[in-house]
Amino acid sequence: MQYEEIINIFWKEYVKTTPSAGKIHELLEAKGERISNDHIAFRTFDHPSINVEQLAKPFLACGYLEKDSYVFEAKKLRAKHYEHPDPKAPKIFISELLLEEFSEELQFLILKKINEIPMGLIETGATIFAGRPWGTISHDTYLRLREESEYAAWMYVYGFCANHFTINVNQLTAIESLQEMNEFLKTNGFPMNVSGGEIKGTPESMLEQSSILADKKAVEFAEGSFEIPSCYYEFARRYEDADGNLFQGFIAKSADKIFESTNAAE
Ligand code: NI
Known about the structure:
The protein is an alpha+beta fold. It is about 35% helix and about 25% strand. It has a single domain (about 5-260), classed as 2,3-Dihydroxybiphenyl 1,2-Dioxygenase, domain 1, CATH 3.10.180.50. The strands form 2 sheets. Strands 2-3-4-1-5-9-6 form a 7-stranded mixed beta sheet, sandwiched between helices. Helix 1 (about 5-15) packs across helix 2 and helix 6 runs antiparallel to helix 7. The termini are far apart.
C-alpha cells in the first residue's frame, strides 16, 4: 500500500467519529484553502504485541522511517514519531501507555482486553486498522480506568484509530498564524483545549500547537449508551531553526497538554 491509501483509510474513519473535523475541513475549503496534514497521532499500550513498534509496521512498510522518541513522565507515556521521504506525507506520532506504572487492577483490566484481540490481527500487523478489537465494554470499568488515566479509559473505549489529525497551518494561505486559526475556530463555535493556554509552544521552541476539544460520541456499553469524548482536530505551525530548516520534531511539554483534549469534562 502507498502511504496515501493508508492515510485515507484512517481519515474516512476519523471524520465519522469526529464530525467537527469534517466541518472544519469544509469551512477552510470554502475559504479557498487546500489542507495538508502535519501529523496523525495514534495511541496504544506498551504490551509487546501492540506496542509502538508493532503499530508502526504498516507505516514502515510504505517507506516511513523512525525519527525521535519522547517520554511523558506525568502521563506515564512513551512515544515515537516517523517521517516519510516524501515531504508532503504527514508525520506519524504513536504513543503508548506504560502499563507497569499503574495499579495491579488497571493492568488486569487492560490485559484482559488485550488478550481478546484476535491473533490474526496481531500476526498480520493489522491491529492499527482494527478500531476496538475486543468484546463488550463496561461503563463502570471505563469510570474506574479514568480515575487513574484518561488515556487508558479512552483506549479501552476506542481502541485503534487516528486519535487526531493535525492541519499544517504553515501551508494555509488566507490564515497566516495559529492565533488567526484559533479565532476562526472560535468564531465558528468550536471549543478549544485551553489546558496550558490556547497555544502550546512558542516560535522560539519552533512549534506552536492548538486543538479543539474532542467531539462526544454515543458509545454502547454493557450498561447502556453513554456519551464519551472521541477524537479531536489539532493545528500546528512550525518555525525554522538557526540553519533555516523547518523544525520537524515534537515538544513533549506541549504534547502533554494536547493529550488532555480527550479528557471528559467533570
Ligand atoms: Ni498531535
